[in-house]
Amino acid sequence: MASYGLYTHIQSNRRRSVALLIGLFFLVYLLSFAGALAAEALMYDASLGWLLQHAWGYFIKSIPWVTLGTVVWILIAYKFHQSLIDAVTGASDVTRTEQPRLYNLLENLCISRGITMPKLKLMESDALNAFATGMNEKQYSITVTTGLLKQLDDAEVEAVLGHELTHIRNGDVRMLVIAVIIAGVISFFAELVFRMLFQGGGSWRSRSSDSSDRGKGGGGAAILIAIALIALAWILSTVIRFALSRSREFLADAGSVELTKNPDAMIAALRKIEGRGELAGATSAVMEMCVDNPRQGFEDIFATHPPIQARIDALVKFAGGHDPGPLALPKPDETPDEPQGEQQSDDAGNAQAGQSGGPWGQGDAAQPPGGDKPFLPDRPPIELGGTPQAPTPGGGSGGPWGPRRDS
């Protein structure tokens, strides 16, 4: 079977997926230590060294429970992430009977390359976008918006489906789902620690202790260190998400061209999707999985997708496609009506055609005097037998070939 997408990119994505999981546990442990340090600082008025030492001891004891909680979180996300995404987007499964056009396009692509067909989902939205999700072949699915189906023709829809199939094949989908899980875990633990710090009022609750070497005055510094560690964990989780190479979109575009053999369709699809892909109510994690993510910030420094123009330029340069330029599309609530001038001219033309009876003249003039009978001359051109008749007085023609001469 011919491969599509770069093999090295697929292997790189597998290594990154493992690295992301390892990084997830590291960040969760970092947050756990920050939480233990903040708790010690709020409970005891002691020196910074004493608080750090005791926080470390509690952190070591909590490692098994933190690990277990993280594993449970991953298993839940692994099992139910598609249901959660469907709940956010409102997408639902579709069958061949419900969407024969879309289903047949995807099935033909999968059959042509021997790919296991993913589930097909449809999202009710006027936005023009699509995305793939899943962690294995049993979970992979492709979601398409109704707006994309209305505005794109078959070749363009096929190109979008090929783009998402390439993401699945290259392992991009699995890696992005893991990145979303990391973001969710970090946000959850960070929120817990911040609630403990600030919703409790940051009150000091000094406890008596028999130890005389714990000192005093280190609580403020300990809290600052805890906040810094939480911020570091959040920044690292953000960097991990945005460090995922944006080249995956270029490779998915190239993979779509290889599947469909039609670079112009991929370019036209990108032009139509450009600036029209915003999914109302979708989280940033879902938008990162889409064909195009219009949510950019800081002048594309943290952009999850390369600009549409850069992707089109690559297709023109390396795939030989042709760029039609920005495309204007009708609004979803508008139906393309026939221009009034053309309708009037058509009506006039029809009326004229009804009067003329055809392109060779008036219908009435073409009717013979005898009604519906075909035109016949007054007499046959040649008479066999009998006496020839004299020419008609007054210069009559005597037939269609002029006056007759008697021999």
Describe this structure in words.
This protein has one domain (1-204, 214-335). Strand 3 and strand 4 (141-145) form a beta hairpin. Mean pLDDT is 78; it is low at 1-5, 336-346, 351-359 and 361-370. Helix 1 packs across helix 2, helix 5 (154-170) crosses helix 8 (247-260) and helix 6 (172-199) packs antiparallel against helix 7. It is mostly helical and 407 residues long. The protein has a 4-stranded mixed sheet with strand order 1-2-4-3, with helices on both faces. It is built from 13 helices and 4 strands. The radius of gyration is 39 Å and the shape is elongated.
Number of DSSP E strands: 4
The helix content is 55-70%
Q: Which H/E pattern describes the elements?
A: HHEHEEEHHHHHHHHHH
On the 0-100 scale, what is the average pLDDT? 78
How many helices? The count is 13
Could you say which structural class the secondary elements and strand pairing correspond to? mainly alpha
Computed CA radius of gyration, to the nearest angstrom: 39 Å
Count of folded domains: 1
Uncertain ranges: 1-5, 336-346, 351-359, 361-370
- Globular, elongated, flat, extended or rod-shaped: what is the shape? elongated
Describe the biggest sheet?
A: 4 strands, mixed
